[in-house]
Amino acid sequence: MSSFPKVAVAGVGVTRQARRLEGQDTLQACLEAARLALDDAGMTFDDVDGIAGRWPGPGGTVFHPGSLDWGSMLGLPLRWISDTYPQGIPAALEAAAAIEAGLCSSVLVLGGQAGELGEGAVAPYTRPDNEFVATWGAFTAAQFALVAHRYLHTYGVAWERVSRVAVTIRNHGHANSEAVMFGRGPYAIDDVMSAPRIAEPFGRLDLCLANEGAAAMVITSESRARDTGRPVVRIVGGGCEWHRQQYVQPARYEDVGMIGQDAARRAYEASGLTHDDLDVLQLYDVNSFEVVRQLEVLGFCGQGEGADFLDDVDISLGGTLPVNTDGGLMSHSHIGWGAPTLRIVEAVRQLRGEAGTRQVPGARTAMAGGAGSGAQYYNLLLLQRG
Amino acid sequence: MRPLPQPSELTRPFWDGAVAHRLLHPRCDACGGAFFPPHAVCPACRAAAWSWQESAGRGTVHSSTVVHRAPQEGFATPYVLAVVDLDEGFELMTNVVGAGALDVTTGRRVRVAWQQVGDSVLPVFEADPEQEDASA
Ligand SMILES: [Zn+2]
């Protein structure tokens, strides 16, 4: 029996996800995603009394940059806002607590990016502008590589046995018409291993995208979600975990290799579920190492045993444990601060039976994850149909 | 253009030390713990009193990655990004340079070297010719 607040994801909405959304800006894209999520929930903006979203500008208030600006522009009297960093899972968990406490009734979570990314350059959020980071040519993928390298050294695992998850996830995106990388592939392990190296052990195909689009969701009470007549997807548990200052303080495998394990333990406890109950996983696949690490964190295998686990368990569509069915951040989409919500959206679609050709038959319980070891924090959400 | 450190009041002694080829780090006056980067209080015991100490500049590579694609212009690729555990008990993110740098990996003993970039001097590391690895 779940001890978690009785809340549900009442609606989800995503814009087109593309390399670049020409002629759009972040505000327009987020607004479109919000409208779609509200339509999906059978609600309107007037039903919203809580918002969690980064304000992209132009303009904005001086002292409360973020959610309040959305409320102002939309003309909504708000009862609750969260300037949660980052969006997605922590926002959903905070919204659940706020709704349970009676602080508000329905929360809109939104985020994304459009008209922001330049050609070729890495996304600005991947290279922290700090004297102890930028000076050394460090960036997020390289910091995750430092953790992955230490893992491989510690457990004596061959990179190929980890990197193969990129084949599976990218092939999911290859088959998903909504994915940025739709039609690209299919890939084999040789393609992934021979792709240009970025920061060893990572090659280009081991890493997530940086593209444009927006995503939104509506969180409300379970009873209110039932009134909409839409299939109900309940949030039955979740948790967050932070370690040290991300990126400025180097991430050490010994400290962050199992980050998320405690959050998962708490989420399982609150929901009365275990990893065995999960029918489909939407991991935060910023790189292939993180997929293997998160399988260990969630309890599917022991620490350092992720590659062995993959020998026995098929994580592809049609396998016993489908992972990142839409192609994940590697192949479907990574839209900056909106990306965590995309993982939840795919979980919701799977649980509603609305995932089309990539539907996991009978999926009843799902997990969505956010962040990772190189970032030194992790969070997860457990969701259930009905 | 490669980004160069823009020191704050808190970090300026570190970069000034580098100009004089001295590797400085905070050490807590209360618990004696070394830490990095500098903070207002010691992360181990929260004491506000700490002092800059000079390191001998010798340490062991905790982890490293060979970067083939730099995040911005001004870096010659490939280069080595590493976390080095200094013998005094603090850690630094840094670059490994010099002969055989691309082969320097976890466990390798390294020593500080000084790299002039523009008006800045950066503490980087090179393989320690006197010690192969931490267990030796
Ligand atoms: Zn202390």
Task: Detail the topology: elements first, then pairings.
The complex is a heterodimer of chains A (386) and B (136).
Chain A: E1 7-14, H1 26-41, E2 50-53, H2 67-74, E3 80-82, H3 89-100, E4 106-113, H4 140-155, H5 159-174, H6 189-194, E5 197-199, E6 202-203, E7 213-221, H7 222-227, E8 233-242, H8 253-256, H9 261-271, E9 280-282, H10 288-297, H11 306-312, H12 328-332, H13 339-352, E10 365-372, E11 377-385
Parallel strand pairs in A: 2-3, 2-4, 9-10
Antiparallel strand pairs in A: 1-7, 1-8, 4-7, 5-6, 8-11, 10-11
Chain B: H1 12-19, E1 23-28, E2 50-55, E3 58-67, E4 79-86, E5 91-96, E6 109-117, E7 120-127
Antiparallel strand pairs in B: 1-2, 3-4, 3-6, 4-5, 6-7
Bound molecules: zinc ion.
Strand content of chain B: 35-45%
- In total, the number of domains of chain B comes to 1
Terminal Cα separation of chain B, in Å? 40 Å
Order of SSEs of chain B: HEEEEEEE
Name every ligand kind in the structure. zinc ion
DSSP helix fraction of chain B? under 10%
Query: Multimeric state of these chains?
Result: heterodimer
Tell me the radius of gyration of chain A. 19 Å
Helix count from the secondary structure assignment of chain B:
1
Mean of residue pLDDT of chain A? 95
For the largest beta-sheet of chain B, the strand count, sense and barrel status come to: 5 strands, antiparallel
By helix and strand content of chain A, what is the structural category? alpha/beta
Apparent shape of chain B: globular
- How many DSSP E strands of chain B? 7
Task: Report, as a whole number of angstroms, the end-to-end distance of chain A.
Answer: 14 Å
Question: How do the strands line up in the largest sheet of chain B?
Answer: 5-4-3-6-7
**CATH fold type of the largest domain in chain A:** Peroxisomal Thiolase, Chain A, domain 1
| SS elements, strand count of chain A | 11
Largest interface: A-B, 32 and 35 residues
Q: Helices and strands of chain A, in N-to-C order?
A: EHEHEHEHHHEEEHEHHEHHHHEE
Estimate percent helicity of chain A.
25-40%
